C-alpha cells in the first residue's frame, strides 16, 4: 500500500508524512485519500520523491529498502488519459503501471498515457497505452502528445510548415488541425513528448 511505503520512507529520512505534506503544500485530504488506498497524482508523486531524495519508481515500488524492478525493467505509472480526437483536458491520475527496459528508462524521461477515441485508428486504438519520451521538439511525421491551450492534450502526427504546425489524425474521418505560428505562441501549442512505442491492449 502506497501510504505505508511512504510512511516507512519518511521514518527512514527522519520525518513524517504530515510534516512533508505541510512543507510541500499538499492538503490533509491527500493523506486521507492515500490511507484509503488511492494513489497520488503524478505531480504529487514527483514532489514527494524530490523532497525525500528518491525516485518516483522507488516511491511506488519500494520493498525492503530496494527498488522493486521486475525482469522486464523499470515500472512507470500510466498517468492520464490522452483522447485521440478533439483535444480534451489531460487528467493526471495514475491508472496503471507499465514497464520499460532498464536501457530505455536510462535514455530519457518517460511517461505512459492511455488512449481514448478513434482518430488515430487503425494504428493506435482506444485502450492502447503509448510510451512517450518527454521532449519539446520532434521531426515531421513523428506521433506526439501535443498540449493545446496549456492544459489540453491531443495525440497526433505532426507536420511543421513555415506558417505553423498541423496535427494530423490517422483516421480519415477526422480533419487535421492547423495552428498558425501566432496561435502556437498565444494559446500556446507545445509538444509534450514523442511516442516511441504503442502497447496495444486486447
Number of domains: 2
What is the total tally of β strands? Answer: 12
Strand percentage: 25-35%
Biggest sheet layout? 10 strands, mixed
Number of helices: 7
CATH topology name of the largest domain, in short, is Umud Fragment, subunit A
Evaluate the radius of gyration.
Answer: 19 Å
Could you give the distance between the termini? 28 Å
State mean pLDDT (0 to 100 scale). 84
Architecture blueprint of SSEs:
Blueprint: H1 2-12, H2 17-24, H3 28-35, H4 42-52, H5 56-61, E1 62-63, E2 66-67, E3 74-83, E4 88-89, E5 96-100, H6 102-105, E6 110-116, E7 129-134, E8 143-148, E9 152-160, E10 164-168, E11 177-180, H7 181-186, E12 189-199
Parallel strand pairs: 3-6
Antiparallel strand pairs: 1-2, 3-5, 4-9, 6-7, 7-12, 8-9, 8-12, 9-10, 10-11
Describe this protein's structure.
This protein has 202 residues and is α+β, with helices and mostly antiparallel strands. The protein has two domains: 2-67, 434 Repressor (Amino-terminal Domain); 74-199, Umud Fragment, subunit A. Helices cover 27% and strands 34% of the residues. It is built from seven helices and twelve strands. It has helices at residues 2-12, 17-24, 28-35, 42-52, 56-61, 102-105, 181-186; strands spanning 62-63, 66-67, 74-83, 88-89, 96-100, 110-116, 129-134, 143-148, 152-160, 164-168, 177-180, 189-199. Strands 3, 4, 5, 6, 7, 8, 9, 10, 11 and 12 form a ten-stranded mixed β-sheet that branches. A two-stranded antiparallel sheet has the order 1-2. A hairpin with a 3-residue loop joins strand 8 and strand 9 (152-160). The radius of gyration is 19 Å and the shape is elongated. It starts with a helix and ends with a strand. Residues 63-72 have low confidence and may be disordered.
